[in-house]
Design a protein that fits this description.
Layout: E1 5-6, H1 14-31, E2 45-46, E3 72-78, H2 83-93, H3 95-103, E4 105-111, H4 119-128, H5 153-157, H6 164-170, E5 175-179, H7 185-191, E6 197-200, H8 204-217, E7 222-227, H9 229-237, H10 242-264, E8 272-277, H11 294-297, E9 298-304, E10 312-313, H12 344-351
Parallel strand pairs: 3-7, 3-8, 4-10, 5-6, 5-7
Antiparallel strand pairs: 1-2, 4-9, 8-9
Helix pairs in contact: 2-3, 2-10, 8-10, 9-10
The structure holds zinc ion.
Signal peptide: 1-42
Keywords: Signal
Pfam family, one: Phosphodiest
């Protein structure tokens, strides 16, 4: 890890300058392992340099009246999860997803990116906060297979592209990726130096076990967990099939086990925020590539954990910055955009008290909040 102090994204007020100076001292002490990390405002980053101690993002020294920041975030993406099918299955057959929504802040009417409803493009938006089309500032990853050229997201975009992983790394944090498809290796080629663990496994149950073990054993700022089962089954048997619904139920069970690991560990309970969304939905049939179909565009977006409002609707607690899209897919420049999976990047960083991904567009002002507005 490269020692580095980033300038806060907010304007450098006198107070912050003082804090920044204090932090120079703190960095020195941190490296010596003498001081528990304390930092100032979100976006003030301290890298502990060569410190061997496990890292997590420090909580703000003086938290505002609002919610405390999470010590760690688990970002889960369920590939090809249909919110409508989750609703059909109900609380009894998808208890973990329903509990997550009941205990957190959520919407069943979030959206994919506009250009495509495909796995690799949408996931890359999820971790960069960018739209897809490179010519319009997007990350440029429009393909959805294992091709090795372009070799990196930087090559696809035509310039360096920052991500949640580079942001967390720059703040001295640790991150891990657990993915159920080999095409995600693109991320390791792109941001591998910032990702502390990169695990690809086709077996969803074993991958979930890896996630649970990692949660128990490692201190990480951010984990990304991709669950492939619903999508894989949808392509094989159809997204309206019984097999697909079974895959959603087994996914729910895996999510439930991981949530239980968090809930039952004194080290993790109350410190890990969980954000769950999807790369795309499912409109039926065996494909989801028609980006004009509502079913493919429509996804869940759920956040649950320390400081996050319980039983709240994301649109209801964010009036004036986002609006439910009904049955439409609003354009990127809509006055009131929907919640998108691409908002996750900067949402997750905000939960951790970190500034947005440099160069990002979606939720770039971190408008998406997780607490009820003061009345
Ligand atoms: Zn698919």
């Amino acid at each position: 890890m490269r020692p580095r102090i980033a300038v806060p994204h907010s304007s450098l007020t006198g107070q912050l300058a003082t804090q920044l100076a204090a932090m120079l001292v703190a960095v020195t002490l941190l490296v010596a392992g003498l001081l528990a990390p304390t930092t100032a405002h979100a976006g003030t980053d301290v890298a502990p340099g060569g410190a061997a101690t496990p890292t997590s993002v420090p909580a703000p020294a003086s938290a505002p009246a609002a919610a405390p920041t999470a010590r760690s975030v688990l970002l889960i993406s369920v590939d090809g999860l249909s919110p409508a099918v989750v609703a059909q299955l109900g609380r009894k057959r998808t208890p973990a997803l329903h509990r997550l929504m009941a205990q957190g802040t959520s919407t069943r009417n979030a959206r994919t990116e506009v250009e495509l409803t495909k796995t690799l493009p949408n996931h890359t938006s999820m971790v960069t906060g960018r739209r897809i089309t490179a010519e319009q500032g997007g990350h440029g990853v429009w393909w959805n297979d294992d091709r090795r050229s372009p070799a990196t997201v930087h090559k696809a975009a035509g310039h360096r592209v920052a991500s949640v992983f580079t942001r967390v790394d720059g703040a001295g944090g640790s991150s891990a990726v657990f993915a159920g498809k080999t095409k995600f290796r693109l991320w390791n080629r792109t941001w591998g130096r910032s990702i502390d663990r990169f695990q690809v496994r086709a077996d969803d149950a074993r991958l979930a076990r890896d996630v649970r073990r990692d949660l128990r054993r490692k201190n990480r700022t951010l984990r990304f967990w991709h669950i492939a089962a619903p999508d894989r089954t949808g392509h094989a048997k159809g997204f309206s099939s019984r097999a697909y619904r079974r895959a959603v139920r087994s996914t729910d069970a895996l999510v439930g086990e991981v949530l239980r690991t968090i809930r039952t560990s004194p080290r993790l309970r109350g410190k890990v925020a969980v954000v769950l969304t999807s790369d795309h939905g499912a409109d039926g049939g065996r494909r989801h590539s028609d980006e004009t179909k509502l079913g493919n565009q429509q996804i869940l977006f759920v956040a649950q954990g320390p400081g996050i409002a319980t039983g709240a609707d994301l649109y209801a607690i964010n009036p004036g910055t986002v609006a439910g899209p009904g049955r439409r897919q609003p354009a990127y420049d809509a006055d009131l955009p929907p919640v998108r999976n691409g908002d996750a990047a900067n949402f997750v960083l905000d939960l951790l008290g970190l500034a947005p991904v440099p160069g990002s567009e979606l939720n770039a002002d971190q408008h998406l909040k997780w607490v009820r507005p003061a009345s």
